[in-house]
Amino acid sequence: MIQFSDPRIWLVIVLLGAGTFLIRFSFLGLIGNRDLPGWLLRALRFTPVAIIPGLAAPLVLWPAATGGDPDPARLSAASVTIAVGLLTKNVLAAIVGGAGTLYLMLWLVG
Amino acid sequence: MSNDKPLTFGQGVRAGLPFVLVIGPFGLLFGVVGSEAGLDLAQVMTMTFLVIAGAAQFAAVQQMVDNAPVIMVLVTSLAVNLRMAMYSASMVPHLGEAPLWKRALVAHFLVDQTAVLGIERFESRADAPLHEKLAFFFGVALVIAPFWYAATLAGAVVGSRIPESFALDFAVPITFLAMIAPMVKSLAHLAAAITSVVLALLLAWMPYGSGLLLAALAAMTVGSLVEVARTRGGTA
Predict the structure, then answer these.
(1) Strand locations in A10-89, DSSP E?
(2) Beta-carbon neighbour count of residue B6 at 10 Å?
(3) pTM for this one?
(4) Which helix (H) or strand (E) covers residue B3, if one does?
(5) Within its chain, how far is the Cα of A41 from the centroid?
(6) Alpha-carbon distance B196 to B215, whole Å?
(7) 3-class secondary-structure state, position B51
(8) Nearest to residue A43, comparing CAs of B203, B109, B192, B104?
(9) Which of A42, A77, B33, B202 is most exposed, with the fewest beta carbons within 10 Å of its own?
(10) Could you tell me if B75 lies within 8 Å of chain A, comparing CB atoms?
(11) Contact B137, B16 (CB under 8 A)
(12) How high is the ipTM of this complex?
């Protein structure tokens, strides 16, 4: 559960909205028709694959629901999600595969 | 010389429609996860309306659950959205001549689906006039955004009634992995993803998610270097 006070939650929401808008508006609105340096464009393309796996890894290995102990059901679910996502390139199929594995394993292992 | 039909709002709507299948469940999940994490309906909906970016929204909620300082919540979630600067740059040659308020509106709706469909269509129809390109873009946006809002609302409303046995704690990591796996299209992406995982785990002791940021910077560098090395290797 989020422990933030209400004003702090609102602060995050408003600043996240404003910051996201500024990122989206950056070139269209402010910087104009200027080319980005190649190295920067290249690095920007890698931002999702650079951040999201690192964000997910501790949640997979040390889930809060088990008090931080690695858990076979969650490890299998994560592996199936990655495998289905890599093979099908389909977000929804990967979610369904991962959730199905999680429930099957929780039901089997308890 | 093109004899293609003009770009229209309706074409945008049709191009955007298949993505509803991804956005619907995804928005639903954000509504559920956000309200389970303790956000009220107004907070969930304001975030979803302003941000319209699933990964950043999930990241922000997760960082708040982890009780990270506001600045780290923002830096992490905004970093996830940095790719949109690239979308913004790719829209400039096509929509850069529009009046400021229209460019601002385009920016608000510049999400993965509108950007990718827009870039693809505008590049094949570079000769199309500005008003047609804008019509197409807003056609896509008007399918994607309302669906995202409605799905989030539905999730937020039912969210708090879902029992604990559904193990919703794990919805967030599954969603993260499901989003990222299809993006791993090359060795460079794979190298970046592995660097991110290994360093994020090794640096997890660092306070307030700062280890994650170092891991992300290193992963972007590794990804870029591998891509450059492979491009050079391929052309040499």
Answers:
(1) none
(2) 13
(3) 0.79
(4) none
(5) 21
(6) 5
(7) helix
(8) B192
(9) B202
(10) no
(11) no
(12) 0.85
Please give the single-letter amino acid code of residue B21.
L
Q: A71 in contact with B at a CB cutoff of 8 Å?
A: no
CA–chain centroid gap for B16, Å, is 15
Query: Quick check: B118 and B94 in contact, CB under 8 A?
Result: yes
The amino acid present at B28, given as its one-letter code, is L
Cα-based distances in Å from B146 to A43, B27, B115, B172, B200: 31, 11, 16, 22, 35
Contact B170 A74 (CB under 8 A): yes
Cα–Cα distance for residue pair B93/B79, rounded to 1 Å: 25
- The pLDDT of B30-45, averaged and rounded, is 94
pLDDT of res. B128: 94
- Token output for B53: 């970016």
CA distance A102 to chain B (A): 8
Buried b (16+ CB within 10 A) or exposed e, B177-196: bbbbbbbbeeebbebbbebb
For A23, the closest chain B residue by CA position comes to B85
Say if residues B192 and B220 touch (Cβ distance below 8 Å): yes
